[in-house]
UniProtKB/TrEMBL annotation:
Protein name listed in UniProt: Phosphoribosyl-ATP pyrophosphatase
UniProt key word 4Fe-4S: no
Enzyme Commission number(s) from the entry: 3.6.1.31
CDD domains: NTP-PPase_HisIE_like
Encoding gene per record: hisE
Main subcellular localisation: cytoplasm
Annotated InterPro entries: HisE (IPR008179), PRib-ATP_PPHydrolase-like (IPR021130)
């Protein structure tokens, strides 16, 4: 498995931006606007937390997949792609989380 799946899903999301909201879930979210997209991201984040608290690894994977998918829709809203996030993760690789946090001007 590689990051190719993220690119492919990102391309599908991009292609659905202008689709008919009556036939495409992604188009429906874009049509409803950013608030609806962000609400879904929040819902999926909460469901991920609840799955983790339940201790069911399969459910955690399922919910994280939903969270990633809806996060990718949010990225697309801003004209961003999964590759942008992958590049940021690559930039952070090998960097202490505390150091990265401090570089953003935050205190742990």
């Amino acid at each position: 498995m590689s990051d190719d799946i993220l690119r492919r899903v990102g391309a599908v999301i991009e292609s659905r931006k202008g689709a008919d909201p009556g036939t495409s879930y992604v188009a429906k979210l874009f049509d409803k606007g950013l608030d609806s997209i962000l609400k879904k991201v929040g819902e999926e984040a909460t469901e991920t937390v609840m799955a983790a608290k339940d201790g069911d690894p399969k459910k955690v994977v399922y919910e994280v997949a939903d969270l990633w998918f809806h996060s990718m829709i949010a990225l697309a809203h801003f004209g961003l792609k999964p590759e942008d996030v992958l590049a940021e993760l690559a930039r952070r690789e090998g960097l202490s989380g505390l150091t990265e946090f401090a570089q953003r001007g935050n205190k742990p």
